[in-house]
Write a structure and sequence with these properties.
Helices cover 0% and strands 66% of the residues. With 94 residues, the chain is an all-beta fold.
Length: 94
């Protein structure tokens, strides 16, 4: 959800599709990518502006970096569990 509520991104590491789900203006968005490249880039639209998510798959920390409203956000987690959860805030500086 937006407006200072956390968004949760989930992925399965060792399955071919990776799905990121979040709520944006009460509408679900789904992001899919392939896991076995070193860098995976996810792009979404926030207020009609493109937002880029970049994660490193085969390093121990996974980092998602993006800018929305000119504010950078970095989310980190570890890779070697089957399910990863990324938490961030959408409108508290996301």
């Amino acid at each position: 959800m937006v407006h200072s509520k956390p968004a949760i991104f989930k992925t399965m590491l060792h399955s071919k599709p990776v799905t990121f789900k979040t709520m944006e203006h009460s509408k679900p968005a789904t992001f899919k990518a392939m896991v076995h490249s070193k860098t995976v880039t996810f792009k979404i639209m926030v207020h009609s502006k493109p937002v880029s998510f970049t994660i490193m798959v085969h390093s121990k920390p996974v980092t998602i970096k993006t800018t929305a409203h000119s504010k950078p956000v970095t989310c980190k987690t570890t890779v070697h569990s089957k399910t990863l959860t990324f938490k961030t805030t959408i409108h508290s500086y996301f």
